[in-house]
Amino acid sequence: MGIAASGDPDLAYKVAKASAEEISACGVNWIMGPCLDVLTNTRNQPLGVRTTGDDPMQCSEYGVAFMKGYQEAGICTMGKHFPSYGNLEFLGSSLDVPTITESLEQLSLSALIPFRDAIKQGLDSIMVGGCAMSSAGLNVMHACLSDRVVDGLLRRELGFDGVVVSECLEMDSLCQNIGVNGGTVMAANAGCDILLLCRSFQHQLEAISGFKLGLENSMITTDRVRRSLNRVLAMKSRCTSWEKALNPPGINLLSRLQPSHTSLSTKAYNSSITVVRDQNGFLPLTNIIEPEEELLLLTPLVKPLAASAASRELSTHTSVDSPEPQWERGNPGLSGERVFRELGRSLARQRTGRVLHTSYTANGVRPQHESLINRASAVIVVTADANRNMYQNGFTKHVSMICNMQYTAGGEKKIKPLIVVAVSSPYDFSTDTSIGTYVCTYDFTETALVSLVKVLHGDITPTGSLPGTISRSEKLTQSKTHWLVETFNEERDALALDTLIKEIIEWSAPNQRSELRGATSNSFLLRQQNVLETHFVVRNSSTSALYGFCSTYFFKSTGTGAIGALFVDPGRRKLSIGQSLHDRAIRTLLQREGIKRFQLGSRLPSIYLGIPSDHSSERKRLRSWFANVGWNTALSRPVCSMVMRNLQSWSPPEGMAQSLQSAGAEFDLIRGWEHSRAIFDHIKTNNRQGLAEVYKLALSDPNSCGIVRAIRPEDGSIVGTVILYTASSSLAEFIPALKDEGSEFDATVSGGVSSPVISPSAGEYATILQSLILLGVKQVKKQGCASCVLDYMDGDGNFDGLSVMGFSTMHTFEEVSCDAATISRK
User: Fold this and answer.
1) Cis before residue 81, ω within 30 degrees of 0?
2) Would you place residue 660 in the very low, low, confident or very high pLDDT band (cuts 50, 70, 90)?
3) Which ranges of the sequence are coiled-coil (predicted)?
4) What torsion do the CA atoms of 270, 276, 280, 286 make, to the nearest 10 degrees?
5) Using CB atoms within 10 A of its CB, is residue 37 exposed (0-12), middle (13-18) or buried (19+)?
6) pLDDT class for 5, splitting at 50, 70, 90?
7) Tens digit of pLDDT for each residue in 724-741?
8) Is 299 helix (H, G, I), strand (E, B) or coil?
9) 819 found inside a domain
10) Into how many domains does the chain fold?
11) For the whole model, what pTM was predicted?
């Protein structure tokens, strides 16, 4: 990507040729490049800066340039990762298969373009990825094991007759799901000519055994083997011979190449450094800091850069008394931390004032950092893939906030110069204009950082530009309309909000039950002393119609700011109305005194408990939208609303009543405020927002069914509680599901169970939870209710146990929370 940032395809050709000449001198005749992926999804990607960007035509141009350079030096090439690793959906752990969800038509219009062009230009081999493919008419568990992908899409449709290489068959998801021996047979039958097994000797033996067994059982035909053998031999004939392979030129040739290649390397790195923004003219450093003033450098703790075995061996056996290695081009084994330490020294050599340097971690901004920021005259923050390592994003935003809130001795506000440098992915803060000075280097090798220092000190003028459509603001900075956002006025907007809610419910798909069913404008108004609520609307002042609504709550008891709802008129989506409402909500919550964290989804009112996840397609769209506005949707927890219908004919599952005795607790039912002290002491063990407010409603409401307690007999301490209510309870106003007249149960005779809290010291968590809910359901049934709603349930393994009791799921959500310093304010 750094080469693409130079804007010079000829430079790509020259760098590729130089690289190929050096590895050829060492006896290597095949390179696993170029990377031809089109990076259409910049989050959670394994590609990093190996791809040249998100523009398929530019990826093709540079990919072919790299390929030609390698081939000119006599090295065979391999395009990867077919059909594309550029837009993968990551489902969870390494055992889950990343999935391509684009259709073949979509792939053909974007991701396949670089592969198609490289094939026409003579690409020698292609690696087929191990990802899954899931779209209309195409469901593949692993691409490299599918004949539809290898023999069908790659060979027949794209016309590739070169060598096909499988993804490593030891990748966790493939190895655990299928096994190496079975995967070997599948890959061969799919059309792969070379199978990769990169780590374990035992797995390599297993693959050979599986391959032999496949031949013996005629699962792999000899004709298939001969075709693969001929392709491999044809590729070998183009790049090597036994004489060449056994007699590489080695050191003598490398010594002759070094001067010209060093010059080319310096040119490439100098050409790649990109200053994305410098709104306040902080570059070069001489513009903002006097020679004797102090400069602060803040760098993340990152994994070591890939080092050769020789350099690791050298560093392992270096004597303690040996002088520290010089920071030279010939030392590729420096760890990430040591490279950043040398960056600090390099910055210091250019000036007389001190350079203060310290690292940062996921622990955030510490008092040491604040002290150094206040002391320094300018600050440089380095990030490395902050779009994947969210702590770096939060740390940088926090430092930015500190730098923007500095004051002179006379009390006047001033801005402390802050320069943010992304040393890997340029997408860290590419579209965040609150970071006024933003520089990208595309890697953090020592050579790249030497070029960075030259730019920071003004020794060279940076000429790099962000590659792909990002440089033309065609994708990541789509044009936005900034709508006028007004504070919700109940007298003015209540009826219009009711109309908007009805429109959204009517717009819902026939098989999709809207979360807003049963809700009215009054459902969002808590009117509680300990909750600061401010709601926002985008409205047409001429017609009084509402186009969008957002509710926000600040719960003083936990310091949590919550977005409880955000919805837009279905006919006016994709017009930035939701973005405008979201931005206003975040800015307002950030101003609350004592704000500690943000939450997407609210227990009270119990309407949207998080990102709706009932339907997979809508879930993906919403997760993507919220991720793009700054939420880390990877850190979410499942919650749901459930219902038990036909309550009067319900009876507990056989044996469940007896489980009450194994809970090790006694149970009782209480009502009234006189129990508040003991209850609130108990629920302090759970820091979820809105919890205290729900219990206050229950304790102070004469119409409440009460609270079921689980008490430890030995000492009388409370180990569990759950709230009971009916349609006449004040809590019911904030639970639309209970009032949903269009539902299958009668809202006038419904009751509910809410907000279980189990003490961490309870021991049998699941048993006590089921016991509390079982007793709660029995009590609700005694009240004559025909149905029972569970308005909020954590999904950490509890759904199945409740289903056994007779509950069915109404709505599922993903609750997302983060520290206040982490949320992106764009």
Assistant:
1) yes
2) low
3) none
4) -10
5) buried
6) very high
7) 998 888 888 888 777 654
8) strand
9) no
10) 4
11) 0.58
